[in-house]
Design goal:
Blueprint lengths: L1 H7 L1 E6 L5 H9 L7 H4 L4 E3 L6 E3 L4 E12 L7 E12 L1 H4 L13 E4 L14 E4 L12
GO molecular function: FMN binding; oxidoreductase activity, acting on the CH-NH group of donors, NAD or NADP as acceptor
Pfam family, one: Flavin_Reduct
Organism: Enterocloster bolteae 90A9
């Protein structure tokens, strides 16, 4: 994706739910430049509405973006921070309505938790996924 983003200066951020997580992870293994990693992983690529980049039909949220800039995380880093500008957002109505499938909980947003490390031992936990669950409201006191 990074090479494509640099060349085209656009992308689509696709948000999967847990039911297609395994296919989304397969896109990482099918990322040779000559391979369409979306269809090779059993997902459906479709044309985005505002940018020339594919969106994944099975994902319930698609954010079409334009590339703004990138910076090294720190001097000499091999990692970069990338800034994108959202130009279009599409979300399935069943997910938008929390009383139906909803955006939160087991059917909602899926987060990749990338190798969290124990700060005392340095032990690394394997990559995993997580969801946000609605909780008890917390009083917001600002003074």
């Amino acid at each position: 994706m990074y090479q494509s983003l640099k060349e085209t200066r656009v992308c689509v951020l696709n948000f999967p739910s847990i039911d297609i997580y395994d296919r989304c992870i397969k896109t990482i293994g099918n990322n040779q430049f000559e391979t369409d990693e979306i269809t090779a992983s059993g997902l459906t690529a479709e044309k985005a509405s505002k940018v020339n980049a594919p969106q994944i039909k099975e994902c319930f949220l698609n954010i079409e973006c334009e590339f703004l800039w990138e910076h090294d995380l720190f001097e000499g880093s091999q990692e970069v921070a990338v800034a994108l500008k959202a130009v279009s957002i599409c979300i399935d109505s069943e997910r938008y309505d929390q009383s139906k499938l909803g955006r939160y909980g087991k059917n909602g947003y899926l987060y990749q938790i990338d190798q969290p490390a124990n700060p005392e031992t340095g032990e690394i936990t394997p990559i995993n996924h997580g969801t946000l669950e609605p909780g008890v409201p917390i009083e917001w006191i600002t003074n």
